[in-house]
Amino acid sequence: MAVKSKNITRIEQLEQLSEQEVAELQKVTDKFAFHCTDYYLSLIDWDDPEDPIRKVIIPDVRELEEWGRFDPSDEGEYTILPGLEHKYNSTALLLVSNICGGVCRYCFRKRVFMEPDRDFLQDLPAALQYIKEHHEINQVLLTGGDPLVLTTSKLENIIRQLREIEHVQIIRIGTKIPAFNPYRIVGDPALLEMLEKYSTERKKIYVMTHFVHPRELTDLSIESIYLLQKAGAAVANQTPLIRGLNDDPKVLAELLSRLSFIGAVPYYIFQCRPALGNKAYTMPIEEGYEIVEQAKSRVSGLAKRARFVLSYSSGKIEIVGKTKDYVYFKYHRAANDADSGRFLALKSNPKACWLDDYDEVVQDYPVGLPYRAYGPE
């Protein structure tokens, strides 16, 4: 059996919580799903109410605050059919699973667990046909849910058919399994053999990990990353910036450094999306920018490659700088190719948690404007 960790699916199964805590948290789990592996739960120091692993996975009554949106990045606008999104010209996204190894409390796709059949890919042949007909698509991201909760045979069925499409060069697997259940990787030689078969010299499989705190980088997790790399997969890491979890520059710097040590390239640091229930986990953009820059100042160049971005409706927008009065943004990847590289100077708003919270656009620079002209006039 590949998976040696079992799932905990009900909050009342956690013997470390008091009856009163269970009663309060059941109100949260009635609205937002809870489940986790016993491996990940074993990392919690239950004597520490501020334990970072606890913050990732254990529900919080503050999730019931009325704040945020069902689909904060408007993924519905780019959905071709359930489970297939085509937002960026060269990239298609397949939601191949509606289950994760655990439900992060700050998840921006809570809707996948609240309405599990709504966005889950159920017609793989139709999705593959769409990708075949759109030759501009050179990479496909498998996500969900988590693709690595699928059996290896089911995952291989998807990857094999994608590899048969000539213009698909990169396959990306978005996963938190190396943190939630590294046994899934360490204990399944067939998974590693499959990755080795389809991650070729000219067409790589990328595994996009989701480590958010240094405590997640256990010996077993690090071994799972090494085995993925040994099988030929390239590994990069994405982390959201979360209030009370990794918003200390020292903690974030340690995470970035340790990821660089094991070759899990720091790729994106995401502003926490304003999804339902996420108010307690979200911090203002400008505060986040300061934290990210302080963290980067503590690490080497290899560890500071991550970009601090908002995954906004119209694209990935990087926060590139700020002064006392202004904040500067740049489209790192745009849904509309004409917006690529577009540069925005906005009036500072220290309380803004999303681009929509800024009232005044000081300048909106067209793509290609000489750098010397950037800045409010």
Protein architecture, described:
The protein is an alpha/beta fold and 377 residues long. It folds into two domains: 307 residues, TIM Barrel; 62 residues, no CATH class. The protein is 27% helix and 21% strand. The protein contains twelve helices and 15 strands. The protein has a 13-stranded mixed beta sheet. A two-stranded antiparallel sheet has the order 1-2. Strand 6, helix 6 and strand 7 form a beta-alpha-beta unit. The protein is globular, with a radius of gyration of 21 Å. The protein starts with 6 loop residues before the first strand and ends in a 12-residue tail after the last strand. 42% of the residues are buried. The C terminus is likely disordered.
How many DSSP E strands?
A: 15
Specify the CATH class of the largest domain: Alpha Beta
CATH topology of the largest domain: TIM Barrel
What Rg is obtained from the alpha carbons, in whole angstroms? 21 Å
Strand percentage lies at 15-25%
* Sheet with most strands: 13 strands, mixed
Quaternary assembly:
single chain
Shape field: globular
Looking at the overall shape, the CATH architecture of the largest domain is: Alpha-Beta Barrel
Low-confidence stretches: 369-377
Keywords:
377 residues, alpha/beta, TIM Barrel, 2 domains, 13-stranded mixed β-sheet, two-stranded antiparallel sheet, disordered C terminus
